[in-house]
Amino acid sequence: MESIDTRSLQQLDAAHHLHPFNDNAALAKKGTRILTRGEGCYVWDSEGNQLLDAFAGLWCVNIGYGRRELGEAASRQMTQLAYYNSFFGCTTEPTVRLAAKLAELCPGDLNHAFFSNSGSEANDTILRLVRHYWAVQGEPQKNIVIGRHNGYHGSTVAGASLGGMKGMHKQGGLPIPDIHHIDPPFWFADGGDMDEETYGRHCAQRLEDKILELGADRVAAFIGEPIMGAIGVYIPPKNYWKEIERICRKHDVLLIADEVICGFGRTGEWFAADYFGFQPDIMTLAKGITSGYIPLGAAMFSDRIAKVLHEKGGELAHGYTYSGHPVCAAVALENIRILQDEKIVDTCRTDTGPYLAKKWKQLGEHPLVGEARIAGMVGALELVPSKPSRAFFEDRGRVGQLCRDIALKNGLILRATYDSMLLSPPLVISRAQVDELAEKAWKSLDMTARELGMPTG
Ligand SMILES: *Cc1c(COP(=O)(O)O)cnc(C)c1O
């Protein structure tokens, strides 16, 4: 592996490869890190560095790297039938079996899968089908979808519009019409002296206020990440989603849970809807559905929605060449088999998750950390200039990046959004690896503090 010529690959990369979510000019100067190998919770780069991946790639490698069974499942399916579509009255066995498996796993009556290649495309699908659902029932004006400021629902036109990232909206003239946003729950910045329950109700009320402002006869659906990932792992109060559910039912607004990060065990439950105890009408899946080994997404619909689409929808004028791709479906089925047979989600809920939470909360005692939040195996450390004040650093993002780079030098991959250090390790992380993670994180916090001339831990 170390025989790779890093420098020449970096030059080719700079010359020919536009990186997503990067300042490409700055990256070209600095040189890309080239990853070459993965095993369990570790990855290696082309210079031979071993890194503990506490971010599971991009929130996705739930079963860890290097599981041969997934490669074998792909190889078997490619050899037998590499591709067939689900368009013209056809489909393939793994596609059907995966749809049935998802129906079994998803909470309540989310029994109907529409397949895409990614989370973004699944959300595009949802936007179209939700509007179609109301239109065929004689309510074409009920077409507004409400999302949240700073939410993330992908990078396609619909995904980025449903999301509330201002920087994304600036590029490409988004959001498209009839998408509105409300403020998300983020107690650390916004909760004042409200207790958890009061704050949960306060934030959910923003949805009802928005519905009343727009008129319930105009609002088709509300979409949210149960735990907001990309913006910095905002974990809402426990009662927030129950309240949101109540408000949606009251005004006949469909409830969409974007479970692209939370699904497949991230919270210690199979889905965050189980974790928070609410029932979505629609759910978006991707990432952990294949543990990132191959691209796949799905939108899950309830019986009620499927019934309307069946009986009144006519031909579904929507689909991707690779909707329900048999190789991706076969890999997803094998991934889910491993999650179930090896009781990975259970272990995470009852053993390693609580252990990680304990260690993560201890990192919260570091002078640089204003808050350590965690649910199951997804969390964040909020870096601040002076505890216990909940004020941010003035030039938000600089310290987070500094800490991320220092952690990398210490052999630990964490992501930084502004000054939040984000955690989302493979669900198979062991207690010993949690110890290693916590030790490297503490050391990195110390080194960051020293660099800033702040007190160390
Ligand atoms: C990653 C993500 C998406 C987009 O999925 P892609 O596969 O990158 O298109 C959508 N929603 C959430 C919550 C995500 O984290």
Automatic annotation (TrEMBL):
PROSITE patterns, per the entry: AA_TRANSFER_CLASS_3
Protein name: Aminotransferase
Family: Belongs to the class-III pyridoxal-phosphate-dependent aminotransferase family.
Keywords: Aminotransferase, Pyridoxal phosphate, Transferase
InterPro entries given in the database record: Aminotrans_3, Aminotrans_3_PPA_site, PyrdxlP-dep_Trfase, PyrdxlP-dep_Trfase_major, PyrdxlP-dep_Trfase_small
GO MF annotations in UniProt: pyridoxal phosphate binding; transaminase activity
PANTHER family in the record: AMINOTRANSFERASE, AMINOTRANSFERASE CLASS-III
Cofactor: pyridoxal 5'-phosphate
Highest taxon listed in the record's lineage: Bacteria
Pfam families, A to Z: Aminotran_3
CC per GO annotation: cytosol
Organism: Arenimonas metalli CF5-1
